[in-house]
Each structure stands twice: as C-alpha cells, then as structure tokens.
C-alpha cells in the first residue's frame, strides 16, 4: 500500500512540475509579447514625433514659399508701374520727334 501512495504522490508532483513549466512558458511568452508590443509602440511614437518634425519643416517651407511669392508679386507690380512710365516716355519722345520733323520742314520752307 505504501507503494500505491507513492505513485499517486509522484504522479501529482509530475503534474505540478509540468503545470509549473507550462505556466512559466506561458508567462515567458506573454512577457516576450508585451516587450515586443512595447518596442512596436515606442517605434510608432518615435515615427509620430518625426512626422511632427516633417510637418513642421513643411510648414516652414510653405511660409518661405509664400514670402517668396509675395515678394515676386510686389516686384511684378513695380515692374508694371515702370513699364507704364516707360510707355509714357516713349510716347513723349515720339511726339517730340514728330514735332521736330515738323519744325525741320517749316524751317526748310522758310529758308527757301
């Protein structure tokens, strides 16, 4: 009888040992899985922070482009004013040339 009691007790110890190993294995898997998840989350957070940096840089570039466009627009406005003034001057010179031609004709008639 004593042997029979040892067998179930030995069997119970084996089951408990296997259960302990099984729980340790599951726990190790869960810890590893959590560690992997934390790493993935950290990478995502870092990627998100870099995305913010990229968005910030894009916004700064956009502001610089907007300033360049405004400067170009101002330059075009100034060039349009200068073009108008040059046209007025051309017209005035053309009138003076015509008047000088008329004066030359009148002088040539007077001198004949």
Brief write-up:
Keywords: Lysosome, Membrane. The protein is mainly alpha-helical.
Describe the protein in words.
The protein has 112 residues and is mainly α. It has 1 helix and no strands. The longest helix has 110 residues, at 2-111. This is BLOC-1-related complex subunit 7.
SSE topology sketch:
Blueprint: H1 2-111
InterPro entries: BORCS7
Family: Belongs to the BORCS7 family.
Protein name: BLOC-1-related complex subunit 7
Q: Which characteristics define this entry?
A:
112 residues, membrane, 1 helix, mainly alpha, BORCS7, lysosome, BLOC-1-related complex subunit 7, 0% strand, 98% helix
With helices defined by DSSP (H or I, 4 residues minimum), what is the helix count? 1
Q: What value does the Rg take, in angstroms?
A: 48 Å
Multimerization state: single chain
Q: Which sequence of SSEs, written as H and E, runs from N to C?
A: H
Characterize the overall form: rod-shaped
Distance between the termini: 163 Å
- Counting DSSP E segments of at least 2 residues, the number of strands comes to 0
Structural class: mainly alpha
How much of the polypeptide forms β-strand, as a percent range? under 5%
């Amino acid at each position: 009888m004593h042997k029979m009691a040892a067998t179930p007790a030995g069997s119970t110890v084996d089951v408990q040992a296997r259960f302990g190993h099984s729980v340790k294995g599951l726990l190790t898997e869960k810890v590893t899985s959590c560690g992997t998840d934390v790493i993935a989350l950290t990478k995502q957070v870092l990627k998100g922070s870099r995305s913010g940096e990229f968005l910030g840089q894009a916004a700064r570039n956009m502001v610089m482009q907007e300033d360049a466009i405004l400067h170009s627009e101002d330059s075009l406005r100034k060039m349009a004013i200068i073009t108008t003034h040059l046209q007025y001057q051309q017209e005035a010179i053309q009138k003076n040339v015509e008047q000088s031609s008329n004066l030359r004709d009148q002088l040539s008639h007077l001198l004949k």
